[in-house]
Amino acid sequence: MKVTFPHMGYTYVSLKGMLEYLGIEVIVPPPCSKRTLTLGAKHSPEFACLPLKLNIGNFLEAKELGADTIMMAGGCGPCRFGYYAYVEHEILKDLQVGYKLVVMEPPERHIGELLGRIREITGQRSWLQVIKAIRFGYLKAKAVDEIERMSYYTRPRELRTGATDRAVEQGIQEIDQAKTPESLAAALNEAKARFSAISVDSNRTVLKVALIGEIYTLLEPFANVNIERHLGRLGVEVDRSIMLSEWINDHLFMGLVKNARSTARFKKVAPPYLNHFVGGHGEETVGSAVWYAQEGFHGAIQVLPFTCMPEIVAQSILPKVSEDKGMPLMTLIIDEHAGEAGLVTRLEAFVDLLYRKNEQKEALLS
């Protein structure tokens, strides 16, 4: 068995770590690229959103490397993501690309359901081995999230452009290579030391902008045109509303890890703007806009794939949130036709607006 999965940001580090801990061979798809998107768009329905098209491209490229089993998350509710694993599998069968499909559906009652689905891949390995592997994969997700959060602080303040990007790349590589919890802890400590050594200007005026919206376009740099890097170099400290380890704990572990940051904090403040579940991360998107405004952020950017219904619902509500809370909000809708230059221009204009608004506010206070 040679297992592959969609390429979504750094999620491969966690999944690869979990599976290799059990001695399962993993084929990580190449990073998403124009070729990935071209392959996926060619064989996908026109109305399908960007994640599905990139997933198809991922699986076709992974097949070229010898993969034979797809491991993919499932979903529930109005969001079409719950169907995507099965739709993608049917598309691949039509293309005569043979894959076994294992879908990690969110547990409905208890985490034992998730363990049962993982057993389809792990075979006869003991439950203790499986639980240890899941824990190891989760620890890798937490380590990756910590590196990303450190980059959010240093990138807009670094004195040498690119120092943060190099620290991220090296840190992720070392975490990916770690084979035990002990070596993982050592790799994370080295990454922290590397970030501490980056020369920064702590007195530089930095804006704080929240990135909110749909999980795939938030986590995958190719899909969001490297928005975190562009904003950082424009002097913006970002905070992403959905981090990988939080999503794992909330949706797969059912909140089993206590005292961990959770998107539940967003749902609590979504009313009265949105009072019920609309699928995907729509409810969290609305709530996160409220939450970040209350935290004093200068602005927020909603990122979503074209035709994403839950995010379209949220998008229709966000102007009211912006008006009530006094926090500027911008929406970026991404599809296969989105050009990086145009989106960067929009980011520059939005950041310029935020700087001018911040200067006016400080002038009134002085």
Structure characterization notes:
The protein is built from 15 helices and 8 strands. It has 2 domains: 2-123, Rossmann fold; 206-365, Rossmann fold, CATH 3.40.50.11900. The chain has helices at 11-21, 34-42, 50-64, 81-94, 112-122, 127-154, 163-177, 181-196, 215-219, 227-233, 244-252, 264-269, 282-294, 309-325, 340-365, and strands at 2-4, 25-26, 69-73, 100-104, 207-213, 236-240, 299-305, 329-334. Strand 1 (2-4), helix 1 (11-21) and strand 2 (25-26) form a beta-alpha-beta unit. The chain is of the alpha/beta class. The protein is globular, with a radius of gyration of 20 Å. Strands 2-1-3-4 form a 4-stranded parallel beta sheet, sandwiched between helices. Helix content is 55%, strand content 11%. It starts with a strand and ends with a helix.
What key attributes describe this structure?
366 residues, alpha/beta, Rossmann fold, 2 domains, 4-stranded parallel β-sheet, 8 strands, 55% helix, 11% strand, globular
Helices and strands in order, then pairings?
Blueprint: E1 2-4, H1 11-21, E2 25-26, H2 34-42, H3 50-64, E3 69-73, H4 81-94, E4 100-104, H5 112-122, H6 127-154, H7 163-177, H8 181-196, E5 207-213, H9 215-219, H10 227-233, E6 236-240, H11 244-252, H12 264-269, H13 282-294, E7 299-305, H14 309-325, E8 329-334, H15 340-365
Parallel strand pairs: 1-2, 1-3, 3-4, 5-6, 5-7, 7-8
Write down the secondary-structure element order. Answer: EHEHHEHEHHHHEHHEHHHEHEH
**CATH C-level category of the largest domain:** Alpha Beta
Number of domains: 2
User: Helical element count?
Assistant: 15
Number of strands: 8
Strand order of the largest sheet: 2-1-3-4
Largest sheet: 4 strands, parallel
Name the shape in a single word. Answer: globular
- Look at the structure and give the mean pLDDT: 92
Structural class: alpha/beta
Provide the CATH topology of the largest domain: Rossmann fold
Please report which band the strand proportion falls in: under 5%, 5-15%, 15-25%, 25-35%, 35-45% or over 45%.
5-15%
Helix content bin: 55-70%
CATH architecture descriptor name of the largest domain: 3-Layer(aba) Sandwich
Distance between the termini: 66 Å
Whole-angstrom Rg: 20 Å
Q: Could you list the spans in which at least 5 consecutive residues all have pLDDT below 50?
A: none
